Fold this protein.
Amino acid sequence: MPSAPTPATEVRTDAAAAPRKASRRFDPHRFGPLLGLALLLVVGTALNPDFATWDNLMNVLTRTAFIGIISIGMCFVIISGGIDLSVGSMAALIAGGMILVMNALAGSIASPVAVVAIGMVFAVTLGGGFGLMHGYLITRGRIEPFIVTLGTLGIFRAVLTWLADGGAITLDNSLSDAYGPVYYASLLGIPIPVWVFILAAVAGAVLLNRTPFGRYVQAIGSNEQVARFAAVDVDGVKLLTYGLLGVCVGIATLLYVPRLGSASPTTGLLWELEAIAAVIVGGTSFKGGEGRIAGTIIGAVLLSVISNILNLTSIISVYLNAAVQGCVIIAVAFLQRRRP
Amino acid sequence: MTDTANITRRVVLGAGLAVAATAGFGGFARAADSVKLGVCIPAATHGFTGGIVWWANEAKKELEKAHPNLKITIKTASGAPEQANQLQDLVTVTKIDSLVIFPFESAALTQPVAQAKKKGVYVTVVDRGLTDTSAQDAYIAGDNTAFGRIPAEYIAKKYNGKANIVALRGIPTTIDNERWDAFTAVTKQHPGIKILDAKYANWNRDDAFKVTQDYLTRFKDIDVIWAADDDMAFGVLKAIEQAKRTDIKEVFGGAGSKSMVKTILDNSNPLIQADVSYSPKFIYDAIKMTAEARLKGGTLPATHILPSALITRDNAKEYYFPDSPY
């Protein structure tokens, strides 16, 4: 942290934080991502009437669920001033690991449902473990989060590729049938992954805005030294943010696996960038200190709506798909920019 | 089941490589009729390259057993610069006299390969051609034109020149363009065949799933989906299953992966009736052809295109390799 830990800094931070909080309610920039999403929905419906059908919207929300749930965890890490580049590789390794565990258990445990349940617990535990390992290396090992997670980005994917022998790890058919509903079934017309996504979002918002932990995360992100002087257990809180992100990756993965029933070296490719983009597009400061769960959710949905619209139309060359995505991301970021 | 088997195989292969390296140094003074063959291939990062690595090791096992005076050293690289370094090591340290290389990138590897050839190494290039063909002695590749032409002809014949097709494309590359051009060249001759759209799904199951979901939302009447790759076909099938669509009559993948060929053999999915071969086995053929020609002191034809063939239930058995990872 560049600023010296003097009382003056503390006063300044407090003073800056207070009016910002007060002005939040009236800040039109806060609604930038929502405005962008609303515009995209109008454009999408105008280009192809099928866009506005319930089935299509549920398709989009279901496929957003993975990135969305990960970006909720990522939001905490970024607000605390950290970063995690490994989430895509981590998801791939958890997916491969849980499939191998489930396939191995299928022989000894008769009930496929029990096997799947064990697999799910394994996924979340493994994710949490990986996250805590990151946190430990970052806080106790004093290594930059960028480097730690860049390292594990390579490690996780390489281990998966090795386990898969370069091919794919596929779930046994009997388990696939038992597990399939976790992705494909619906409750009250809304697919299960979307329900989990909604629950995770509500839990994330409560945790960030209504608990001491959430306040500590924001305090550390806006000024780590000050937080330390205010007797916040900086290392402990940081460790937990990475653990929390790991758990989110685990949950996202246990929803992902039943979709294709397999993990391959291309699983979760570039998820880290999508999750980070969702967080930043949603109005969280890349420098940390301030962020919003609601914005993050909108950011994640917005990113998948863009590619959905591009798939539903063919007005521009497919070679330019990524360019359209890039333009929308920059435009939305502009709408929600902070004034200096 | 494969876990212990894999580890055992790795240990065995690792030991084999170590022995080969030692023998390479020790055998320096041996008769001139020994051949030291270097093999440079991409590391196993997805199904297809996983198959390449497996087939290269199969070739090494079989050929070294059959020819005691042959030493094969296999190097896998995850990028063009790494591959260039490995090539240099093979030439200066392992002192290879023959090389089979699957270049990571055509342009970047042309100079390093030319350097090796200048030192007297016999060079066989596989799959991706070099930008300067004088740097290679022989070129062996799969037939990308047939990869696109065969499915198009198959669909045209089976559906009497009348079908609504949606297509998936791979990653924007010359290989993908060749396949796509060959496919559309055939479909253009049949006015009844309509290609509704073609989008990139990056030779990737997840992207294929998403793109297909959106195709199914957008088009209410589809006869055939040309998935153009067996991995992508996997995602396509899941999306169709989810949408419970019954209008789609067929999904055509590509490459002849183990699981797809098995599906055709067992007739276990009515949507999968045929495939086109583009097997990573060509690396095996290339190593075998090069090694045997060099042991006899002969050379290979300048260009050798391994044909791609239509796989149906009648001939699927010939394309089914249960031990290969792909």
Q: What stands out?
A: Residues 28-335 of chain A form a domain with the ABC transporter involved in vitamin B12 uptake, BtuC fold (CATH 1.10.3470). Chain A touches chain B at residues 48, 50-51, 53, 55-56, 59, 63, 100, 161, 164-168, 170, 184, 259-260, 262, 264-267, 269, 307-308, 311-312, 314, 318-319, 321 (CB under 8 Å). Chain A has one domain: 28-335. The radius of gyration of chain A is 21 Å.
